[in-house]
Design brief:
The protein has 99 residues and is mainly α. It has one domain: 434 Repressor (Amino-terminal Domain) (Orthogonal Bundle), CATH 1.10.260. The protein contains 5 helices and no strands. Helix 2 runs parallel beside helix 5. The N and C termini lie far apart (36 Å).
Length: 99
């Protein structure tokens, strides 16, 4: 059986079948979660210390570390990063219209 290779859309969530709007939301949330995790690692924080820094409970940090993306919203993650002194910026652009 031949293997078929498909070009990535640069959004793994879209590639595995999520609708475009859901896939983009998941992509943004995962990027923010990764930034929280990177901050924890760079500062060598325990989950308890990270919870204090990000203004949440230790179980919330545990959920984040375990990748429980469904438990986090974009605004909640932006607020967490803000507590750590990290600003978040988004760039928007219009989709190209297809005739």
């Amino acid at each position: 059986m031949p293997t078929t290779i498909h070009r990535s859309s640069d959004n793994i969530f879209r590639d595995v079948g999520f609708p475009p709007n859901v896939a983009e939301n998941l992509r943004l949330r995962s990027a923010l979660m990764i930034e929280v995790r990177r901050t924890m690692m760079a500062r060598k924080l325990t989950q308890a210390a990270a919870a204090k820094l990000f203004g949440v409970s230790q179980p919330r940090i545990s959920d984040l570390v375990r990748g429980r993306i469904e438990l986090f919203s974009i605004d909640g993650l932006v607020i967490m990063l803000g507590h750590a002194g990290i600003s978040v910026q988004f760039t928007t652009r219009r989709k190209r219209r297809v005739a």
